[in-house]
Amino acid sequence: MSGSPNPPVQLGEPRPGPKPAAECDVCQALLHQRQLAEARDDMSKVTELNVELRNHPEHAGHQR
């Protein structure tokens, strides 16, 4: 076989979870769901909920 193998992928540190708006019930519900997913070690769900928190229409850009 010729050629060199691909170098390993270098990943950075994961982004911290977004901070929900304290006065928003939707944000607080998403935070609670994220905490439950973290307790189950369901990182796929944690990621999904982080995306929802970051993109929450009423708070987009709030403490990202």
Helix content: 40-55%
Number of helices: 2
Provide the residue-averaged pLDDT: 84
Beta-strand fraction estimate: under 5%
State the distance separating the first and last CA atoms.
48 Å
The number of E-state strands comes to 0
Order of helices and strands: HH
> What is the 3D shape?
elongated
Poorly predicted parts: none
Q: Determine the oligomeric state from the structure.
A: single chain
Overall radius of gyration: 17 Å
Structural class: mainly alpha
What characterizes the major β-sheet? none
What do these coordinates show?
By secondary structure, the chain is mainly alpha-helical. It is built from two helices and no strands. The chain has helices spanning 25-39, 43-54. The longest helix is centred in the middle third of the chain and has 15 residues, at 25-39. It is elongated and about 55 Å long. The N and C termini lie far apart (48 Å). The model has no long low-confidence stretch (mean pLDDT 84).
